[in-house]
């Protein structure tokens, strides 16, 4: 008789590792641990693998990092046998890829679908996690690995009288599997983030009329999607290992021709040529044009003005173009969007832009949406209103560590982690791409591979020495949080009301959550920590403390900083109390 994941999850002996989530992170973690001889299982809330690509099925959904780089590199055969059809793969193809990976490595036999983890309590005496799911029987595991995704829980945003609305309501993040046909309908969409920017052009082609409710415009760059350019494919095919290594050895985990030139020291005609070249290339390449745009407001303004010009070029009504131009945050301080035909969509006669800053949204009526100016009638409304990012999936679990301490209390003033991987007081709990790691500032799949491999190495090291638990020390966690702040404070990133800052969720502590020091630097730090016998971690065997390293000293040396930027950096670090005031 076949044994299912469900049967083995209820064994009396604790399993080695329970992984929560069967997205790319959970799938690779399972594969890696199984290969190392661990008894690992996965629970997944959805009915299939794919995580982000399982849930976000809205029209136009596709990846914003080139597919040649947004795919697994851990297995050469997998890499060789899969061919992406486009530069930026669409969601259905990404889901097929996830399914292919699951099939190829026979993952599903260890995944229990349609199951949510509701609680996980650390049992100090037994040195195990007692995990409760909504599927019934509790699970005991030595290690609990949260592969729950950074953008997996939609915000709880609601609107007055939403329940009175008689039409259909769709959320981009929970799109019906059978799809939606908007033909002949009057459709409204709330939000203008990446999800909306990708779906609007497609919905506009289908719907009779589309009304877009915008509160804050975003920067969006053209994907110039299509078949993978031959030169790019050849650069990859020549040596996929080297290509992958080059992607990982970058700040963002993808190749971006990052320049060291300063915009403020470059002649205007050279700036224009460089920005045009990168705009024509498409996607995030423009982010790497100049080294000072992420720090110096004057340099950032140059790119802002360039993009404003591009919006004016694409949108025929100057008033609409002006409304679509971001003015409240520097370029790159919210995750920029990558679109296919977004701005041109506003030239269609069936598309209308409503500026919620001028006419705030009052609520819903049975017919549609009411603003302070008028009521708009719709057959269907789409909510593209975003996610409770980075912490949402974790703090919805009743997670309790040593002494019953709740993660929610530990994170009351913002998420605290060591290396974005472990939390003080929560032994044997790992987060993949958790807060305090580069995660959402990078090509996620390269971040995922780094995390999975580091966690797997850590579990092997523990097993070899028969150690039963590992836990971040309070001191190392505090030092890491300080380093996370040091990494972001010199930049303009904290200046936007972004989901990176928790600003899109009322009551959420304002704190820049991801690590902005770069994937390459971060990887080096994690490797150093491991090489120093897991510096900053407390390691136990039963109730015996085996090693107690409380410090974190593995800071990387500061890279070379252009002299011109030093005063800004010093001023920001000093103002934040992260550097003593110069006498
Ligand atoms: O969410 P968002 P998203 N009334 O938070 C508006 C990734 N992603 O799902 O800015 C009116 O960016 C809100 O307005 P404002 C990517 O990392 C990647 O689009 O708060 N409006 C905003 O316009 C991305 O950054 C891809 O003023 C309200 C929008 O809703 C992240 O996911 C594709 C409102 C939310 O935008 C999140 O993107 C999609 C209210 N009460 C997503 N509440 C790829 O390309 C919210 N809004 C791979």
How would you describe this structure to a colleague?
With 583 residues, the chain is an alpha/beta fold. The chain has helices spanning 5-9, 24-35, 52-55, 76-81, 91-104, 194-206, 230-238, 240-248, 268-281, 297-314, 318-323, 342-345, 392-395, 407-410, 444-464, 474-488, 519-531, 566-575, and strands at residues 15-20, 40-43, 111-112, 117-123, 128-133, 136-146, 168-171, 186-190, 209-214, 220-222, 337-339, 351-355, 361-364, 368-371, 375-377, 380-383, 398-400, 429-431, 469-472, 537-541, 544-548. The strands form 5 sheets. Strands 1, 2, 3, 4, 5, 6, 17 and 18 form an 8-stranded mixed sheet that branches. It has a 5-stranded parallel sheet with strand order 7-16-8-9-12, with helices on one face. A 3-stranded antiparallel sheet has the order 13-14-15, with no helix packed on it. It binds 3-acetylpyridine adenine dinucleotide. The site of 3-acetylpyridine adenine dinucleotide (N01) has 25 residues, from helix 6.
Radius of gyration (CA) equals 24 Å
Mean pLDDT score: 95
Low-confidence stretches: none
What about the largest sheet? 8 strands, mixed
Bulk shape: globular
Gap between N and C termini: 76 Å
Protein structure class? alpha/beta
- What ions, cofactors and ligands are bound? 3-acetylpyridine adenine dinucleotide
Total strands: 21
Discrete helix count: 18
Helix content bin: 25-40%
How much of the polypeptide forms β-strand, as a percent range? 15-25%
Features:
583 residues, alpha/beta, eight-stranded mixed sheet, five-stranded parallel sheet, 18 helices, 31% helix, binds 3-acetylpyridine adenine dinucleotide
